[in-house]
Amino acid sequence: MQWVMFLLVLTGQCFFSVCHLHEYHFININLTWERAQTYCRANYTDLASVFDKTDVQRMREKAEGLETDAWIGLCNYTERDNRTWHWSLPGIEYNQRESNINLYEPNNETENCVKMGNDLQDVNCNNTYKFVCYDEKTPGKKFHLIQDKMNWSQAQNYCRHNHTDLISGAQQLAEFEKERGSEYDLWIGLFRDTWRWSDRSNFSFRHWDKEPWSQDKQIGEKCATTLLKGGKWSFDNCNEQKPFFCYKSKLVLVQELKTWEQALYHCRDRHHDLVTISNPHQQGWVQETAKNATSELVWLGLRYTCALDLWFWISDQLVCYSKWAKEEQGQACDMAVAMKKKEQHEWVRKADTNKFSFICVER
Protein backbone atom coordinates (compact mmCIF):
# COMPACT_ATOMS: atom_id res chain seq x y z
CA MET A 1 0.00 0.00 0.00
CA GLN A 2 2.84 2.42 0.81
CA TRP A 3 4.19 2.51 -2.74
CA VAL A 4 0.72 3.54 -3.93
CA MET A 5 0.62 6.34 -1.38
CA PHE A 6 4.16 7.40 -2.36
CA LEU A 7 3.06 7.69 -5.99
CA LEU A 8 0.06 9.82 -5.00
CA VAL A 9 2.26 12.13 -2.96
CA LEU A 10 4.65 12.59 -5.89
CA THR A 11 1.89 13.38 -8.37
CA GLY A 12 -0.21 15.38 -5.89
CA GLN A 13 -3.36 13.80 -7.27
CA CYS A 14 -6.67 13.53 -5.47
CA PHE A 15 -8.87 10.69 -6.60
CA PHE A 16 -12.40 11.32 -5.43
CA SER A 17 -14.35 8.16 -4.84
CA VAL A 18 -17.14 7.40 -7.28
CA CYS A 19 -18.44 4.84 -4.81
CA HIS A 20 -21.81 5.69 -3.30
CA LEU A 21 -22.64 4.77 0.28
CA HIS A 22 -26.25 3.95 -0.57
CA GLU A 23 -28.23 2.66 -3.54
CA TYR A 24 -31.65 3.74 -4.79
CA HIS A 25 -34.25 1.29 -6.11
CA PHE A 26 -37.31 2.34 -8.07
CA ILE A 27 -40.28 0.08 -7.30
CA ASN A 28 -42.88 0.27 -10.03
CA ILE A 29 -45.75 -0.97 -7.87
CA ASN A 30 -48.62 1.29 -6.83
CA LEU A 31 -48.91 1.42 -3.04
CA THR A 32 -49.98 3.94 -0.40
CA TRP A 33 -47.14 5.79 1.35
CA GLU A 34 -47.34 3.64 4.49
CA ARG A 35 -47.43 0.37 2.54
CA ALA A 36 -44.50 1.59 0.46
CA GLN A 37 -42.65 2.33 3.70
CA THR A 38 -43.34 -1.21 4.95
CA TYR A 39 -42.14 -2.69 1.65
CA CYS A 40 -38.89 -0.71 1.68
CA ARG A 41 -38.11 -1.58 5.30
CA ALA A 42 -38.70 -5.27 4.63
CA ASN A 43 -36.63 -5.47 1.44
CA TYR A 44 -34.09 -2.62 1.66
CA THR A 45 -33.34 -0.02 4.34
CA ASP A 46 -36.25 2.44 4.10
CA LEU A 47 -38.17 4.76 1.81
CA ALA A 48 -35.72 7.03 0.02
CA SER A 49 -34.04 9.85 1.93
CA VAL A 50 -32.34 12.62 -0.06
CA PHE A 51 -29.23 14.50 1.05
CA ASP A 52 -28.71 16.86 -1.91
CA LYS A 53 -29.12 17.29 -5.68
CA THR A 54 -26.70 14.43 -6.31
CA ASP A 55 -29.27 12.07 -4.82
CA VAL A 56 -32.07 13.70 -6.83
CA GLN A 57 -30.21 13.01 -10.06
CA ARG A 58 -29.43 9.43 -9.09
CA MET A 59 -33.11 8.72 -8.47
CA ARG A 60 -34.10 10.27 -11.78
CA GLU A 61 -31.67 7.95 -13.53
CA LYS A 62 -33.27 4.97 -11.81
CA ALA A 63 -36.76 5.89 -13.07
CA GLU A 64 -35.96 7.02 -16.60
CA GLY A 65 -39.16 7.50 -18.58
CA LEU A 66 -41.37 7.71 -15.49
CA GLU A 67 -44.56 9.63 -16.33
CA THR A 68 -46.19 9.73 -12.90
CA ASP A 69 -45.15 10.84 -9.43
CA ALA A 70 -43.42 8.49 -7.00
CA TRP A 71 -43.26 8.42 -3.22
CA ILE A 72 -40.07 9.27 -1.37
CA GLY A 73 -39.56 9.10 2.39
CA LEU A 74 -40.58 12.63 3.40
CA CYS A 75 -43.82 12.98 5.32
CA ASN A 76 -45.62 15.90 6.94
CA TYR A 77 -46.85 15.65 10.55
CA THR A 78 -49.10 18.49 11.74
CA GLU A 79 -51.02 16.84 14.57
CA ARG A 80 -48.87 18.97 16.91
CA ASP A 81 -46.51 21.91 16.53
CA ASN A 82 -43.35 19.97 15.82
CA ARG A 83 -41.68 22.42 13.50
CA THR A 84 -37.91 21.96 13.41
CA TRP A 85 -35.27 24.46 12.32
CA HIS A 86 -32.90 23.50 9.49
CA TRP A 87 -30.04 25.15 7.64
CA SER A 88 -30.47 25.23 3.88
CA LEU A 89 -26.95 24.00 3.11
CA PRO A 90 -26.91 20.16 3.34
CA GLY A 91 -24.68 18.77 6.08
CA ILE A 92 -24.90 21.72 8.49
CA GLU A 93 -27.18 20.95 11.41
CA TYR A 94 -29.01 23.55 13.43
CA ASN A 95 -27.91 23.86 17.05
CA GLN A 96 -29.54 26.72 18.96
CA ARG A 97 -26.91 26.72 21.70
CA GLU A 98 -23.98 26.70 19.27
CA SER A 99 -25.60 29.20 16.91
CA ASN A 100 -26.52 31.60 19.74
CA ILE A 101 -29.76 32.37 17.95
CA ASN A 102 -32.57 33.97 19.92
CA LEU A 103 -35.58 34.03 17.66
CA TYR A 104 -38.37 36.39 18.63
CA GLU A 105 -41.38 35.09 20.53
CA PRO A 106 -44.25 34.46 20.30
CA ASN A 107 -43.71 32.63 17.02
CA ASN A 108 -46.43 32.76 14.43
CA GLU A 109 -47.19 29.66 12.33
CA THR A 110 -46.49 31.64 9.15
CA GLU A 111 -43.03 32.78 10.29
CA ASN A 112 -40.89 29.92 9.09
CA CYS A 113 -37.85 31.67 7.57
CA VAL A 114 -35.17 33.88 9.11
CA LYS A 115 -33.71 37.26 8.17
CA MET A 116 -30.60 38.92 9.56
CA GLY A 117 -31.01 42.41 11.02
CA ASN A 118 -29.75 43.71 14.37
CA ASP A 119 -30.66 40.20 15.48
CA LEU A 120 -31.98 37.12 13.74
CA GLN A 121 -35.75 37.30 13.31
CA ASP A 122 -38.23 34.71 12.10
CA VAL A 123 -40.57 36.17 9.47
CA ASN A 124 -43.00 35.09 6.76
CA CYS A 125 -41.14 33.27 3.94
CA ASN A 126 -43.12 35.21 1.31
CA ASN A 127 -41.61 38.52 2.41
CA THR A 128 -38.97 39.91 0.05
CA TYR A 129 -35.45 40.92 1.14
CA LYS A 130 -31.90 41.07 -0.10
CA PHE A 131 -29.92 37.93 0.72
CA VAL A 132 -26.48 36.39 1.14
CA CYS A 133 -25.19 33.45 -0.90
CA TYR A 134 -22.36 31.19 0.22
CA ASP A 135 -19.92 29.85 -2.38
CA GLU A 136 -17.52 27.08 -1.40
CA LYS A 137 -15.76 27.11 -4.79
CA THR A 138 -14.91 30.81 -5.23
CA PRO A 139 -11.27 31.45 -4.20
CA GLY A 140 -11.00 34.28 -1.71
CA LYS A 141 -14.70 35.21 -1.75
CA LYS A 142 -17.09 32.99 0.16
CA PHE A 143 -20.02 35.37 0.51
CA HIS A 144 -22.01 37.23 -2.13
CA LEU A 145 -24.52 39.91 -1.16
CA ILE A 146 -27.40 39.95 -3.66
CA GLN A 147 -29.15 43.32 -3.83
CA ASP A 148 -32.24 42.08 -5.68
CA LYS A 149 -35.14 41.49 -3.31
CA MET A 150 -36.77 38.03 -3.44
CA ASN A 151 -38.83 35.79 -1.20
CA TRP A 152 -36.93 33.10 0.72
CA SER A 153 -37.50 30.28 -1.80
CA GLN A 154 -36.49 32.45 -4.74
CA ALA A 155 -33.34 33.48 -2.86
CA GLN A 156 -32.49 29.86 -2.13
CA ASN A 157 -32.97 28.86 -5.77
CA TYR A 158 -30.81 31.78 -6.91
CA CYS A 159 -27.97 30.83 -4.55
CA ARG A 160 -28.09 27.15 -5.48
CA HIS A 161 -28.05 27.97 -9.18
CA ASN A 162 -25.33 30.64 -9.12
CA HIS A 163 -23.25 29.72 -6.06
CA THR A 164 -23.59 26.93 -3.47
CA ASP A 165 -26.49 27.84 -1.18
CA LEU A 166 -27.87 30.51 1.13
CA ILE A 167 -25.42 31.35 3.91
CA SER A 168 -25.82 28.66 6.58
CA GLY A 169 -24.44 27.80 10.01
CA ALA A 170 -22.99 29.74 12.92
CA GLN A 171 -19.46 29.72 11.52
CA GLN A 172 -20.47 31.23 8.17
CA LEU A 173 -22.60 33.87 9.89
CA ALA A 174 -19.68 34.85 12.14
CA GLU A 175 -17.36 35.16 9.15
CA PHE A 176 -19.86 37.22 7.16
CA GLU A 177 -20.50 39.52 10.12
CA LYS A 178 -16.95 40.87 9.77
CA GLU A 179 -17.69 42.17 6.26
CA ARG A 180 -21.43 42.88 6.47
CA GLY A 181 -21.10 46.59 7.15
CA SER A 182 -24.43 48.43 7.41
CA GLU A 183 -26.49 45.92 5.44
CA TYR A 184 -29.66 44.76 7.24
CA ASP A 185 -32.78 42.71 6.51
CA LEU A 186 -31.01 39.91 4.66
CA TRP A 187 -32.30 36.38 4.09
CA ILE A 188 -30.08 33.63 5.53
CA GLY A 189 -30.48 29.90 5.01
CA LEU A 190 -32.50 29.10 8.13
CA PHE A 191 -36.02 27.71 7.86
CA ARG A 192 -38.35 25.40 9.73
CA ASP A 193 -41.00 22.91 8.71
CA THR A 194 -42.96 19.88 9.90
CA TRP A 195 -41.61 17.43 7.31
CA ARG A 196 -39.75 14.32 8.53
CA TRP A 197 -37.85 11.54 6.78
CA SER A 198 -39.06 7.99 7.22
CA ASP A 199 -35.66 6.78 8.47
CA ARG A 200 -35.52 9.68 11.00
CA SER A 201 -32.49 11.22 9.32
CA ASN A 202 -32.12 14.96 9.80
CA PHE A 203 -31.42 15.84 6.17
CA SER A 204 -32.45 19.46 5.56
CA PHE A 205 -32.54 19.29 1.76
CA ARG A 206 -35.90 20.21 0.20
CA HIS A 207 -36.56 20.43 -3.53
CA TRP A 208 -40.13 21.71 -3.82
CA ASP A 209 -41.73 22.60 -7.14
CA LYS A 210 -43.91 24.95 -5.09
CA GLU A 211 -43.33 25.24 -1.35
CA PRO A 212 -46.11 23.78 0.84
CA TRP A 213 -46.39 27.04 2.80
CA SER A 214 -47.31 28.88 -0.42
CA GLN A 215 -49.96 26.39 -1.53
CA ASP A 216 -53.57 27.46 -1.53
CA LYS A 217 -54.92 24.02 -0.64
CA GLN A 218 -54.83 22.79 2.94
CA ILE A 219 -52.16 20.22 3.73
CA GLY A 220 -53.62 17.26 5.57
CA GLU A 221 -52.40 16.09 8.95
CA LYS A 222 -50.21 13.47 7.35
CA CYS A 223 -49.15 13.94 3.74
CA ALA A 224 -46.17 12.57 1.89
CA THR A 225 -43.96 14.11 -0.72
CA THR A 226 -43.62 12.82 -4.24
CA LEU A 227 -40.80 13.06 -6.75
CA LEU A 228 -41.86 14.43 -10.11
CA LYS A 229 -40.42 13.47 -13.47
CA GLY A 230 -38.56 16.76 -13.71
CA GLY A 231 -36.91 16.18 -10.33
CA LYS A 232 -38.88 18.73 -8.29
CA TRP A 233 -41.07 17.61 -5.39
CA SER A 234 -44.77 17.92 -4.67
CA PHE A 235 -47.12 16.26 -2.16
CA ASP A 236 -50.34 14.29 -2.14
CA ASN A 237 -52.71 12.45 0.16
CA CYS A 238 -50.79 9.56 1.71
CA ASN A 239 -53.59 7.13 0.87
CA GLU A 240 -53.08 7.62 -2.85
CA GLN A 241 -51.33 4.71 -4.55
CA LYS A 242 -48.08 5.43 -6.43
CA PRO A 243 -44.78 3.80 -7.33
CA PHE A 244 -41.95 4.66 -4.96
CA PHE A 245 -38.22 4.81 -4.27
CA CYS A 246 -36.44 2.73 -1.64
CA TYR A 247 -32.81 3.02 -0.62
CA LYS A 248 -30.29 0.46 0.60
CA SER A 249 -27.48 1.72 2.85
CA LYS A 250 -23.98 0.29 2.48
CA LEU A 251 -22.97 1.61 5.89
CA VAL A 252 -22.80 -0.71 8.89
CA LEU A 253 -22.52 0.78 12.39
CA VAL A 254 -20.77 -1.65 14.74
CA GLN A 255 -21.55 -0.79 18.35
CA GLU A 256 -18.86 -3.00 19.88
CA LEU A 257 -15.96 -0.91 21.20
CA LYS A 258 -12.65 -1.73 19.51
CA THR A 259 -9.25 -0.20 18.87
CA TRP A 260 -8.71 1.25 15.40
CA GLU A 261 -6.79 -1.81 14.21
CA GLN A 262 -9.37 -4.21 15.65
CA ALA A 263 -12.09 -2.21 13.90
CA LEU A 264 -10.18 -2.38 10.61
CA TYR A 265 -9.83 -6.17 10.75
CA HIS A 266 -13.48 -6.56 11.80
CA CYS A 267 -14.67 -4.57 8.78
CA ARG A 268 -12.39 -6.41 6.36
CA ASP A 269 -13.37 -9.83 7.72
CA ARG A 270 -17.13 -9.31 7.82
CA HIS A 271 -17.90 -6.49 5.40
CA HIS A 272 -15.49 -4.65 3.09
CA ASP A 273 -13.52 -1.96 4.90
CA LEU A 274 -13.61 0.90 7.37
CA VAL A 275 -15.48 3.79 5.80
CA THR A 276 -13.74 6.41 3.63
CA ILE A 277 -15.14 9.95 3.26
CA SER A 278 -14.00 11.83 0.17
CA ASN A 279 -16.70 14.51 -0.26
CA PRO A 280 -19.47 16.37 1.65
CA HIS A 281 -22.13 14.04 0.24
CA GLN A 282 -20.48 11.00 1.85
CA GLN A 283 -19.90 12.98 5.06
CA GLY A 284 -23.63 13.65 5.28
CA TRP A 285 -24.61 10.00 5.03
CA VAL A 286 -21.88 8.83 7.44
CA GLN A 287 -22.77 11.38 10.11
CA GLU A 288 -26.39 10.25 10.10
CA THR A 289 -25.17 6.72 10.80
CA ALA A 290 -22.77 7.91 13.51
CA LYS A 291 -25.62 9.53 15.49
CA ASN A 292 -26.77 6.11 16.69
CA ALA A 293 -23.39 5.02 18.11
CA THR A 294 -23.05 4.05 21.78
CA SER A 295 -19.71 5.85 22.06
CA GLU A 296 -19.29 9.61 21.63
CA LEU A 297 -16.80 9.00 18.80
CA VAL A 298 -16.72 6.50 15.96
CA TRP A 299 -13.63 5.30 14.09
CA LEU A 300 -13.20 6.19 10.41
CA GLY A 301 -10.72 4.60 7.99
CA LEU A 302 -8.23 7.48 8.27
CA ARG A 303 -4.77 7.10 9.82
CA TYR A 304 -1.46 8.93 10.00
CA THR A 305 1.73 7.34 8.65
CA CYS A 306 5.04 8.56 10.04
CA ALA A 307 6.94 6.89 7.20
CA LEU A 308 5.35 9.17 4.59
CA ASP A 309 4.43 12.01 6.95
CA LEU A 310 0.77 12.28 5.89
CA TRP A 311 -2.77 11.27 6.67
CA PHE A 312 -4.21 8.60 4.39
CA TRP A 313 -7.40 6.61 3.95
CA ILE A 314 -6.97 2.85 4.13
CA SER A 315 -8.69 2.79 0.71
CA ASP A 316 -5.43 4.37 -0.66
CA GLN A 317 -6.89 7.86 -1.08
CA LEU A 318 -5.27 11.09 -0.02
CA VAL A 319 -7.22 13.43 2.24
CA CYS A 320 -8.70 15.84 -0.31
CA TYR A 321 -11.82 16.52 1.77
CA SER A 322 -11.78 16.94 5.55
CA LYS A 323 -13.90 18.15 8.43
CA TRP A 324 -11.38 18.64 11.23
CA ALA A 325 -12.46 20.10 14.54
CA LYS A 326 -10.90 23.52 15.19
CA GLU A 327 -8.61 22.19 17.91
CA GLU A 328 -7.13 19.53 15.66
CA GLN A 329 -3.70 20.59 14.43
CA GLY A 330 -0.51 18.77 13.54
CA GLN A 331 -0.02 15.04 13.50
CA ALA A 332 1.61 12.25 15.47
CA CYS A 333 2.50 8.61 15.04
CA ASP A 334 -0.02 5.93 16.05
CA MET A 335 -2.94 8.30 15.52
CA ALA A 336 -6.21 7.59 13.72
CA VAL A 337 -9.35 9.65 13.12
CA ALA A 338 -12.75 9.41 14.75
CA MET A 339 -15.95 11.36 14.02
CA LYS A 340 -18.00 13.05 16.73
CA LYS A 341 -21.47 11.59 16.86
CA LYS A 342 -23.00 14.92 17.96
CA GLU A 343 -22.85 18.62 17.09
CA GLN A 344 -21.36 19.13 13.61
CA HIS A 345 -19.82 15.63 13.43
CA GLU A 346 -16.27 16.92 13.11
CA TRP A 347 -13.16 14.75 12.92
CA VAL A 348 -10.68 14.41 15.79
CA ARG A 349 -7.27 12.74 16.16
CA LYS A 350 -7.09 9.94 18.72
CA ALA A 351 -4.48 7.38 19.71
CA ASP A 352 -5.38 4.23 17.81
CA THR A 353 -5.42 2.23 21.07
CA ASN A 354 -8.65 3.98 22.14
CA LYS A 355 -11.78 1.88 21.83
CA PHE A 356 -14.81 3.29 20.01
CA SER A 357 -17.72 2.13 17.90
CA PHE A 358 -16.96 2.21 14.18
CA ILE A 359 -18.53 2.30 10.73
CA CYS A 360 -17.87 -0.31 8.06
CA VAL A 361 -18.87 -0.10 4.41
CA GLU A 362 -20.21 -2.94 2.29
CA ARG A 363 -19.08 -3.54 -1.29
Automatic annotation (TrEMBL):
<feature type="signal peptide">
    <location>
        <begin position="1"/>
        <end position="21"/>
    </location>
</feature>
<dbReference type="Pfam" id="PF00059">
    <property type="entry name" value="Lectin_C"/>
</dbReference>
<feature type="domain" description="C-type lectin">
    <location>
        <begin position="138"/>
        <end position="247"/>
    </location>
</feature>
<keyword id="KW-0732">Signal</keyword>
<feature type="domain" description="C-type lectin">
    <location>
        <begin position="24"/>
        <end position="134"/>
    </location>
</feature>
<dbReference type="InterPro" id="IPR016186">
    <property type="entry name" value="C-type_lectin-like/link_sf"/>
</dbReference>
<dbReference type="InterPro" id="IPR001304">
    <property type="entry name" value="C-type_lectin-like"/>
</dbReference>
<protein>
    <submittedName>
        <fullName>C-type mannose receptor 2-like</fullName>
    </submittedName>
</protein>
<feature type="domain" description="C-type lectin">
    <location>
        <begin position="246"/>
        <end position="361"/>
    </location>
</feature>
<dbReference type="InterPro" id="IPR016187">
    <property type="entry name" value="CTDL_fold"/>
</dbReference>
